[in-house]
Write a structure and sequence with these properties.
It comes from Tigriopus californicus. Pfam families: Ank (PF00023), Ank_2 (PF12796), SH2 (PF00017). Keywords: ANK repeat, Repeat, SH2 domain. InterPro entries: Ank_Repeat/CDKN_Inhibitor, Ankyrin_rpt, Ankyrin_rpt-contain_sf, SH2, SH2_dom_sf. This is SH2 domain-containing protein. It is built from 15 helices and 14 strands. Strands 2-3-4-5-6-7 form a six-stranded mixed beta sheet, with helices on both faces. Strands 9, 10, 11, 12, 13 and 14 form a six-stranded mixed beta sheet that branches. A two-stranded antiparallel sheet has the order 1-8. The longest helix has 13 residues, at about 270-285. The chain has about 400 residues and is α+β, with helices and mostly antiparallel strands. A hairpin with a 2-residue loop joins strand 4 and strand 5. The chain is globular, with a radius of gyration of 26 Å. It folds into three domains: about 15-120, SHC Adaptor Protein (2-Layer Sandwich); about 130-280, Ankyrin repeat-containing domain (Serine Threonine Protein Phosphatase 5, Tetratricopeptide repeat), CATH 1.25.40.20; about 290-385, SHC Adaptor Protein (2-Layer Sandwich), CATH 3.30.505.
Length: about 400
């Protein structure tokens, strides 16, 4: 069995389940190929759908690294590393170029299999659906989709799907056909943009609305800049797009990686009307949730876990508690996939926020937002755990003197 280097021979290091079904088979294939230090292959994971596994020879053993998919698009990281890469081929190339970035060994040669699957790639190749969409040929697109065309989610060499192309060019009939046939709306191109980001660059309010009605997520951020679709609309002065995004529940103050909000961008770019709309939106929205259903006094993490365990009927069961260690800080405690997760809720001025999430005007608005969108959480909040009623002290019985 022949081996090849990444530098000279590309990226056909992928082996599907028909070729390498599990780790035992992977080890047999690596042994048959010479079992030299740094020899590797990539295979599909059998334990987590959508994940892959990097199997590498290290001295006289094989190490198997889980390549975890983040969300539904081709965004991956090795094990639980914080370095997140778009495109499976980019993950492998990164660790080949940077052997001291988390692996115990270099990647030297690979066992040749197949090319990395299109749905997992950053860059693909242009296909007939891409060309028909770019030409606004509704007839050919319709014929392809009705005939069961399999490459509806495939990307071209710019990392764009047919939905990206239709959204950027404003081809509404084609976009509706793609959505009706199950096209993926959260796919990101090589610049990190979803179709909704691209639609917000131009005056395409009907495209923005069609994507949102098709369940596109208005909170999805560009992994490279942190920009949400609302940042894009504010930057380009697209007031119609801003209003539609807010109508569909987009938070008015998402934060880019530099902490800049859409209102900040609108002011800097000379769009004061958009800045006013965004600033006023927070005060127009009345919260649907009530803090009496989920806000707890200062309790420990162990006590929070105990309450979640007793009340967790589904993923998303949650409570918010005051921190016992940090003044003015709250903690979101939630249950997901048999794990208890805890996130600090910080406050800046009058706004609450968590990690890279948006600024929100109250804890009630915070719960409303994360009940509708994951926005960085493992799942949406769904089942609140009510605080325990305060105990009422019972007075000691009075003893009257002289009575026996």
């Amino acid at each position: 069995m022949s081996t090849y280097t990444i530098k000279d021979d590309g990226d056909d290091w992928y082996h599907d389940l028909t070729a390498v079904a599990n780790r035992q088979k992977a080890e047999k294939v690596l042994k048959a190929a010479g079992f030299e230090h740094g020899l590797f292959l990539v295979r599909e994971s059998t334990s987590a759908e959508g994940d892959f596994v990097l199997s590498v020879v290290n001295a006289e053993e094989v190490i198997h690294y889980q390549i975890r998919r983040h969300g539904e698009d081709a965004i991956f990281s090795l094990n639980d590393e914080r370095y997140v890469v778009q495109g499976l081929e980019e993950v492998i190339f990164y660790y080949w170029k940077n052997p001291n970035s988390g692996l115990q060994h270099p990647l030297t040669k690979f066992v040749r299999g197949k090319l990395c699957p299109l749905h997992a790639r950053l860059h693909g190749t242009e296909n007939l659906l891409h060309r028909a969409t770019a030409a606004n040929n509704v007839g050919i697109v319709q014929e392809l989709l009705h005939s069961g065309y399999q490459n509806i989610t495939a990307k071209n060499n710019q990392g764009q799907s047919a939905v990206h192309i239709a959204s950027a060019k404003g081809y509404l009939p084609i976009l509706r056909l793609l959505i009706a046939n199950g096209a993926h709306l959260e796919s990101t191109d090589s610049s990190g943009y979803t179709p909704l980001h691209l639609a917000c660059e131009t005056v395409q309010s009907d495209i923005v609305r069609a994507l949102l009605e098709g369940r596109a997520n208005p909170t999805t951020r560009n992994e490279k800049t942190g920009w949400s679709p609302l940042h894009v609309a504010a930057f380009h002065g697209r007031l119609d797009a801003v209003n539609i995004l807010l109508e569909f529940g987009a938070p008015s103050q998402p934060r880019a990686l530099n902490n800049c909000t859409p209102a900040d961008m609108a002011n800097r770019r000379g769009h004061p009307a958009i800045a006013r709309v965004l600033s006023a939106n927070d005060f127009k929205l009345k919260p649907r949730s009530s803090s009496g259903r989920w806000l707890h006094p200062p309790i420990s993490r162990d006590k929070a876990n105990e309450l979640l365990k007793a009340n967790a009927t589904e993923d998303g069961t949650f409570l918010i508690r005051k921190s016992t260690k940090r003044e003015g800080v709250h903690v979101l405690s939630m249950f997901h996939d048999w794990q208890y997760l805890h996130y600090e809720i910080m406050k800046q001025g009058m706004f609450y926020f968590m990690e890279e999430g948006p600024f929100l005007i109250s804890l009630e608005h915070f719960v409303d937002h994360y009940s509708k969108f994951k926005d960085g959480l493992r799942c949406e909040l769904s089942n609140p755990v009510q605080p325990e009623p305060p105990s009422i002290p019972v007075p000691a019985p009075r003893v009257c003197p002289g009575i026996f």
